[in-house]
């Protein structure tokens, strides 16, 4: 039966086999000439001559049909409008081929084929309003400039990153830590559908695979591997985003971290990254200057939608609450946060997030005594 399989089918089989990681799969393919059908047909002794492959792995490969139903998988893929792309296919992210242990294939929903440079925006599931605002703003600004925003569809920062890109008609890709048919969290079903329509959903796991402690780090290496740079907006020291940042560093990608409050648990990871050498990020210009894109290499910006103002103006737009705060600083006023709270009636929690956003938008400047004044 193995001889009757196409190369694509054989890769689909190998990719789905349990307890065989991408490192072993890539070694098997390399040592056996690159043809996955040869791997499936090889005798146990030949398989076990490959570094890291023992009787358990060789047994799984030799008896693959006991572990994986290829016909059912192909039926599921057809029904779900899903394709399986390999490094030789158009649409397999170019940079992902360069990492040490690239997936031998990816399930993909959506027609986006990764023709634009990608930047990942990741962070905590337990996020603050400030973190969500920053993630959405950076995502929208970068998507508007022509970058594809990559994240993991999780609650919190990931969700905000995808929404930011979609809000300006940009491209975004979600990399899942489960089978592509499992949507988690369930409240992101509508977001999942929008990403599929405007970008791409990716997974290296077969249909029905539930997320676990092994699959999330595997997902994180793909997120980092696809991208030129990774931005961590909020993360505690033990957060999954720290794993993504570590993969990015090992893969030679740029790593950025957004500073937050010193008393906020979800800022501790970002502050640790900055101490460890990540670039402190306060605006999109920080990324553009370090990536050093030349004319002709920078992605093409998204044209403004009909009725929209120039993108540079849009990037500086204020929300109604932000405009209310800025009105307090007319005439050169210098105010403490307490004074602003008294003038606007905003709560201390909301005000703190709004002031930080206005600092990031270069509208307010913090003075040495902790008060603020408008930038001119």
Structure in words:
The chain has 376 residues and is an alpha/beta fold. The chain has three domains: 68 residues, DNA polymerase, domain 1 (Orthogonal Bundle); 185 residues, 3-Layer(aba) Sandwich (Rossmann fold), CATH 3.40.50.450; 57 residues, Orthogonal Bundle (Arc Repressor Mutant, subunit A). The chain has 17 helices and twelve strands. The chain has a nine-stranded mixed β-sheet, sandwiched between helices. A three-stranded antiparallel β-sheet has the order 10-12-11. α8 packs across α9 and α10 packs across α11. The chain is elongated, with a radius of gyration of 23 Å.
Biggest sheet: strands, sense, closure? 9 strands, mixed
**CATH topology title of the largest domain:** Rossmann fold
Instruction: Give the termini distance in whole angstroms.
Output: 73 Å
> How many β-strand runs?
12
- The ordered string of helix (H) and strand (E) elements is HHHHHHEEEHEHEHEHEHEHEHHHEHHEE
CATH class of the largest domain: Alpha Beta
Can you count the helices? 17
Proportion in helices: 40-55%
Summing up helix and strand content along with how strands pair, one would put the structural category as alpha/beta
Task: Using the alpha-carbon principal axes, give the shape.
Answer: elongated
Strand order of the largest sheet: 1-2-6-5-4-3-7-8-9
Whole-number average pLDDT? 89
Count of separate structural domains: 3
Into which percentage range does the β-strand content fall? 5-15%
Unreliable spans:
307-315
CATH architecture of the largest domain: 3-Layer(aba) Sandwich
